[in-house]
TrEMBL record:
GO molecular function, one term: molybdopterin cofactor binding
Oligomeric form and interacting partners: Homodimer.
Recorded superkingdom: Eukaryota
Keyword Transport: no
The gene coding this protein: LOC111594900
UniProt-annotated location(s): Mitochondrion intermembrane space
Major location category of this protein: mitochondrion
Pathway entry: Sulfur metabolism; Energy metabolism; sulfur metabolism
Protein name: sulfite oxidase
Span within the parent record: 196 to 572 of 572
Organism: Drosophila hydei
Keyword Transit peptide: no
Length: 377
């Protein structure tokens, strides 16, 4: 069975599906660590986890279009000998928070909560160094295709692609990573090498990377062509034409309340409750502000942010936030409270208020205000 060699997982990872393994941690724990502990980092696998040995590992680079040496290969030692670069980047699944969108109307996909995201320090060789050493030159028309060692039943590998411009941009910080938070990658997260494409939807961060192709077209994989794309709320499975929509690359601004959890009983302390969570935007956009309300938007409270001190445009890590929210006497007597969070990024993009107008049949890009109902005690 292809599933016989699956790795052991942390018992706190709650599986949304077991084969392939897909799981997220309890979000209250996510919000406690700026760097998500590796064993609690969500796992999103489409296929069985391949068993790769460091000593046999080989990465193939093919330049099919544009300038550059047509073919070369690298073993693990050769990749590790290149200058080591470290970048903090959050990886978020395109379907993060899908379960909230489903409440409006059913969507197709794994029912993720707000935990299909994690933030880590990734270290490895810069893809721009590797490409430039092979003579690859900037060309706006070209794409870089990545293939994993995980094969579907018809022997097609998991694949994805990004524009060559992102891959060659030193400020794009694309790395061929062999370390996650200073530890070797675990099998679930792509051992021995995965590509990290900071600011870009999880699906392009190909794990168990075995082949890179510079081409004049996008990856022809199912996941690039017929998945991970957004559509109008009126598009249904009879009318959808996947060839007409752009593959998701950068993600829109989002946030989530990690604590309190829905339906939690929260103790009011001196007329306040403590609320914390995460916020993130794609494309390297820094989080500028996170606003909270517990009275349906009549009054807003600005959260305190914890974030890396790196320039905007290259701010790939998430921001954690915390706020002491005042609770009125009247709210305390009612005992039920609904908290809303919305984040604002450095381009002043704001989360949409509700899911109604951003609903899409695959349940991706689910970034409306995060709303949590709690009980006060
Ligand atoms: N890479 C390969 N080879 N196979 C996969 O199934 N899943 C992708 C991406 N890279 C996937 C992959 C998706 S959809 C996401 S969201 C992220 O990996 C998840 O990364 P993680 O499991 O390390 O959290
Ligand atoms: Mo994903």
């Amino acid at each position: 069975s292809p599933w016989a060699q699956e790795p052991k997982r942390h018992e706190l990872l709650k599986p949304a599906s077991k084969r392939p393994f897909n799981a997220e941690p309890p979000i209250s724990m996510l919000g406690e660590h700026f760097y998500t502990p590796n064993e609690l980092f969500y796992v999103r696998n489409h296929l069985p986890v391949p068993c790769l040995k460091a000593e046999d590992y080989e990465l193939e680079l093919e330049v099919e279009a544009g300038a550059g040496k047509p073919k070369c290969t690298f073993n693990l030692d050769e990749i590790k000998k290149l200058p080591k670069h470290t970048v903090t980047a959050a990886i978020m699944c395109g379907g993060n928070r899908r379960s909230e969108m489903t409440r409006i109307k059913t969507v197709k996909g794994l029912s993720w909560g707000a935990g299909a995201v994690g933030n880590a320090k990734w270290s490895g060789a810069r893809l721009c160094d590797v490409l430039r050493a092979q003579g690859v030159e900037p060309d706006e028309r070209l794409q870089v295709i990545f293939e994993g060692a995980d094969l579907d039943p018809t022997a097609h590998p998991f694949g994805a692609s990004i524009p060559l411009a992102k891959a060659l941009d030193p400020r794009g910080d694309v790395v061929l990573a062999y370390e996650m938070n200073d530890q070797p990658l675990t099998r679930d997260h792509g051992y021995p090498i995965r590509v990290i494409v900071p600011g870009t939807v999880g699906a392009r961060n190909v794990k168990w990377l075995t082949r890179i192709v510079v081409a004049d077209h996008e990856s022809d994989s199912h996941w690039q062509q017929n998945d991970y794309k957004g559509f109008s709320p009126s598009t249904d499975w009879d009318t959808v034409d996947f060839s007409k929509a752009q593959a998701i690359q950068a993600m829109p601004v989002t946030s989530a309340i990690c604590s309190p959890m829905p339906e939690e009983r929260v103790k009011v302390d001196k007329g306040h409750i403590t609320v914390y969570g995460y916020a993130w935007s794609g494309g390297g956009r820094r989080i500028e502000r996170v606003d909270l309300t517990n009275d349906g938007g009549k009054s807003w409270h600005v959260a305190k942010l914890e974030q890396e001190n790196v320039p905007d445009g290259r701010h790939y890590g998430w921001s954690l936030w915390t706020v002491r929210l005042p609770v009125t006497e009247e709210q305390q007597t009612k005992s039920e409270l609904e908290i809303w969070a919305k984040a604002v990024d450095s381009a002043y993009n704001v989360q949409p208020e509700t899911f109604e107008n951003i609903w899409n049949l695959r349940g991706v890009l689910a970034n409306a205000y995060h709303k949590v109902k709690v009980k006060l005690i």
